[in-house]
Amino acid sequence: MNDQHQHHSAAAADWTTVPTADGPMRVFVARPARPADRAVVVLQEAFGVNDHIQDIARRYAARGYLALAPDLFHRNGVGTLAYEQHAEAMPLIGAIGPDAITTDAEAVLTHLAETEKVPAARTAIHGFCFGGRAAFTAATGIHGLGATVVFYGPGIAAGPHAVLDRAADIDAPVMLHVGAEDPTIPGDQVAAIEQALTAAGVTFESHVYEGAGHAFACDARPHMYAEDSARTAWRRTHTFLDTYLPAAS
Q: By percentage, how much of the chain surpasses pLDDT 90?
């Protein structure tokens, strides 16, 4: 691991717009110093493509990935919400069901393949909170992905947009991280997800972090951030992605 990968600085970051079946969608793009042959699609929390999500994209770019964070709120034009606007966020994410998520993820993957020459097989989807559900959902609707990573995604196993019944459609490896104290993803739901993935024959890892709550890896929310758990989850994630999206030699 050379020194440039340790700094959280992308060579360049900017917004682009990609077409979707439901209208144009803004996408934040962070580029590594050298052209990348692998990509990560970063899916937002319930608060939009905010500074934290942009920072995650930049961190991936600093590790040599092309990182794209699509604005999943593009249908209603909200953009971003402050972290204290949780009540306002709930109906927004509630309105985004599996078809919309798949539409948006496919649009980003098409853009990657056609404009950046990075195929789906060299692309991972990594989602946080609402974006965790979205990442899992995208994995059920899109074939040929490189990998999927879910950081504390509520609503996968229960709720109006649950998609566990589609687990058999997943054909890429999945990694899930959940805090043991996360009230939005209780233990029975974690078990249900693990059982469904096992039954479907999906290659997966599921990690539960004792003492950690929801959003435990979000260093932009100090009262929720659990540094030890976050560091472990990120280390496992980087190892997982290096396994399934190995860097070109």
A: 94
